[in-house]
Structure formats: structure tokens, C-alpha cells
TrEMBL record:
<feature type="domain" description="DUF58">
    <location>
        <begin position="48"/>
        <end position="226"/>
    </location>
</feature>
<protein>
    <submittedName>
        <fullName>DUF58 domain-containing protein</fullName>
    </submittedName>
</protein>
<dbReference type="InterPro" id="IPR036465">
    <property type="entry name" value="vWFA_dom_sf"/>
</dbReference>
<dbReference type="Pfam" id="PF01882">
    <property type="entry name" value="DUF58"/>
</dbReference>
<dbReference type="InterPro" id="IPR002881">
    <property type="entry name" value="DUF58"/>
</dbReference>
């Protein structure tokens, strides 16, 4: 088998023509290292249980669960629990940031979104896509046919990262639009008031969706490695700032740590998977984190 691991580096993938090809290479590279069969067992991860009620067929009782809990639960089989994945991608201007020598947060997120869409459609499950900044700009309704991937890729290709963000308002909007319960995967730098972000996420949970937050950041935004006096360019309407990074570095890192901690704790309190992604991180780890979180929840 061709060594796809070489394609999992973000810089390498960025040089490959065609986001659909990049998605395929990323998925094939991931599964080559994780399982001999690319898609075997993926849908099984999403099987569920429900409580037994009088009249149910006892052949579907999970006796292992009964032996541990003394309660009767029925197995929900794959054909009863097809996956519906909503992919939400932040296209605000801050997502275009890229430190020298790295891909932008937006491009990195595009890779993972395309790969997850490819993987789920190969499973014959359904994928929808929403692109947003301070409002929902593009929305592709969920579908499960293989040709749907072309529509997903097209929207990713033609939508630039620009304009302001209002993540809280967008999450409230989309939580009302999504009528059928599914898995909501959000890709964003979350550069907004954590209280508003968490309120929007809570709305999805109130409507009984499962939620995975992929927090996409450039390492420079967390580590703040700058040393020389620097003019920091404002994004999303904010003014430019001239500053001495050494003088403010410690305070900056403290604020960022508090902000990240608030998001992590807030997600944990409402039973949401929080998956940090750094743009210097191998892309296969993004898929691993997502699938591991899903598997651990269903188990």
C-alpha cells in the first residue's frame, strides 16, 4: 500500500491539487494506520440503547448490560441509528490567520471538514454543511449519496474567510434549523465571548444533538512567541496595535489560558466533546480525536 502518512502533514496537503483528493488522502492515511478495513465498524460506533418496555422483543435485550446494571436495555442496530453529521465551519476573517510557514486555521479546518464528509458519506450516512461568520452564509442540507461530496467540496472551495464573527447568534440560529437530531461538529477559533459561545452550544444540547467542538488555533495565538516590537494587525474590524511582546507576553498567556479553561470546563459541564486543534498538529490526529470521542461516548 502506498505510504499515505506523508500526506498527513498540513503543508504537504496544501500542495495537493483538489480538496476532494486531499480529503481522500487524509482519510486513507488515517485508516491505513488505524484499521485494516477503512470503514468497518464506523457506523457500529453509533449504535445506541433504549430502555425495555413491555411488549418489546426480548431477543434484542443486551444481557451484558443487564448483568451489570440489573436493568433491561434493547440494542439499537445500525440500520436504526444511521449517522447524521452536521458540519459547521467558521469563515470569519480571523480564521485566515497563518503564522509564517504554516497553513491558515481556515485551510486546516477545511481539510478536516472535507475528510469527515468523505468518511461519513463512504459509510452511506448523511452530511450537511453550514458556513458562517456573523450569520449563516451558506447551508447545504444533509444528504447521503456519494455525489453529495462534490457539493460539500465546492462550497468549501468557493467560500473565503472574511467578515466579522458572531458565533453565539449563529449557533442559536442553526440549533433551530436542524430539526432532525444528529451529531453537530463545529470548526472555529471560537474568538468570541465564551459565555455567548457556551449558551449557543447549550441550545444544541437542549435540542438533543450531540456536539463536538473542534477548536482550531495557530500555535502563535497560544504560545505568543514574539520578541521584537511588533505592529499587530487588527482583524474583523478591530484596530491595529503596536506593542512590545516581551512586556505583555505573560499577561497575554494568562488571559488565553483562562479563556481556554472556561471553554473546556463549559463544554464538559454540558456533555460536549472539546477537541483542541493546532495548525502544526498532524491532521490524522484530528480524525483520531473525533472518532475516539465518539467511541468512548457510545461505550
Amino acid at each position: 500500500m502506498e505510504n499515505y502518512q506523508s500526506y498527513l502533514d498540513p503543508q504537504t496537503l496544501a500542495s495537493v491539487e483538489g480538496l476532494d483528493l486531499q480529503a481522500r488522502l487524509l482519510v486513507e492515511g488515517y485508516v491505513a494506520g488505524m484499521h485494516p478495513s477503512p470503514y468497518h465498524g464506523f457506523s457500529v460506533e453509533f449504535a445506541e440503547h433504549r430502555e425495555y418496555v413491555p411488549g418489546d422483543d426480548v431477543r434484542h435485550v443486551d444481557w451484558k448490560v443487564w448483568s451489570k446494571t440489573d436493568k433491561l436495555y434493547l440494542k439499537q442496530y445500525e440500520e436504526e441509528t444511521n449517522l447524521l453529521l452536521y458540519l459547521l465551519l467558521d469563515t470569519s476573517e480571523s480564521m485566515a490567520y497563518a503564522a509564517e510557514g504554516r497553513v491558515s486555521k481556515f485551510k486546516y479546518a477545511q481539510f478536516v471538514v472535507a475528510a469527515l464528509a468523505y468518511l461519513v458519506l463512504q459509510q452511506q450516512d448523511s452530511v450537511g454543511l453550514a458556513l458562517f461568520d456573523d450569520a449563516v452564509r451558506r447551508y447545504l442540507k444533509p444528504a447521503g449519496q456519494p455525489s453529495h461530496l462534490k457539493e460539500v467540496i465546492h462550497l468549501l472551495d468557493v467560500t473565503p474567510a472574511r467578515d466579522k464573527s458572531d458565533l453565539g447568534a449563529v449557533l442559536h440560529d442553526l440549533s433551530e434549523r436542524f430539526k432532525k437530531r444528529g451529531v453537530v461538529a463545529i470548526f472555529s477559533d471560537l474568538l468570541d465571548d465564551p459565555t455567548k459561545v457556551l449558551a449557543g452550544l447549550k441550545h444544541f444540547r437542549h435540542r438533543r444533538h450531540e456536539v463536538v467542538v473542534f477548536h482550531v488555533l495557530d500555535p502563535d495565538e497560544v504560545d505568543f512567541p514574539f520578541r521584537d516590537p511588533t505592529l499587530f494587525l487588527g482583524m474583523e474590524g478591530l484596530p491595529d496595535v503596536a506593542a512590545d511582546p516581551v512586556a505583555l507576553g505573560a499577561a497575554y498567556r494568562k488571559e488565553v489560558a483562562a479563556y481556554l479553561d472556561a471553554l473546556k470546563k463549559g463544554c464538559r459541564m454540558i456533555d460536549i466533546d472539546y477537541v483542541p486543534l493546532r495548525t502544526d498538529q498532524p491532521l490524522d490526529l484530528a480524525l483520531s480525536a473525533y472518532l475516539a470521542a465518539r467511541a468512548s461516548r457510545t461505550r
